[in-house]
Amino acid sequence: MWKQLTTLQNYVVLKKIRTTSNDFLSFRKYNKKTLYFLKKNIKYKLNNLITISAIDYLKKKNHFLILYHFLSLNQNFRLCLKLFVIETLIISSISDLYQNAYWCEREIWDLFGIEFDLNLDLRRLLNDYFFEGFSLRKDFPLYGYLEYYYSEIEKQIKLEPISINQDLRFD
């Protein structure tokens, strides 16, 4: 399968990293046509999007890494496409190619603040609706915010400042 993937060198940086049965590709530049090609081409048939995940590398120039994990049931292989982006870039949504991308993109927006252009349902998923900021970013402050909770003793909603102590946190 790797020999077939080398035909995509115009679109991606090929890095063959073997971990179990995965092959990893890094995007030179983001191109939705590449994903369409990988899904529809008979050689690849990457018809299942497993997940989209994100990693925040605070000290790097393009400090977000987006990982697209695909599965080809017909060809019996997995593929991970890596995309490094800056925080102000709006990424093209792949939800028109893969229906489950809506949920993954919404989760990435909720936790990291990375926007996807065609996803019209970018609202809070895991954080509270009135939560300000993006909690999985490395530059997210751990104090100064307020926490809402229900007090069973007073039978009302309480508001208190959050203070999370982490001795190993670096700024």
Molecular structure report:
With 171 residues, the protein is α+β, with helices and mostly antiparallel strands. The chain has a single domain, classed as NADH:ubiquinone oxidoreductase Nqo5 subunit (Beta Polymerase, domain 2). Helices cover 15% and strands 34% of the residues. The protein has 3 helices and 7 strands. A 5-stranded mixed beta sheet has the order 1-2-5-4-3. It is elongated, with a radius of gyration of 20 Å. The protein starts with a helix and ends in an 8-residue tail after the last strand.
Describe the structure concisely:
By secondary structure, this protein is of the alpha+beta class. Helices cover 15% and strands 34% of the residues. It has a single domain (2-124), classed as 2-Layer Sandwich (Beta Polymerase, domain 2), CATH 3.30.460.80.
Class inferred from helices and paired strands = alpha+beta
Major sheet summary line: 5 strands, mixed
Tell me the fraction of residues in β-strands, as a range: 25-35%
Bulk shape: elongated
Average pLDDT over all residues = 76
State the helix count: 3
Which class in CATH terms?
Answer: Alpha Beta
- CATH architectural type: 2-Layer Sandwich
Helix content estimate: 10-25%
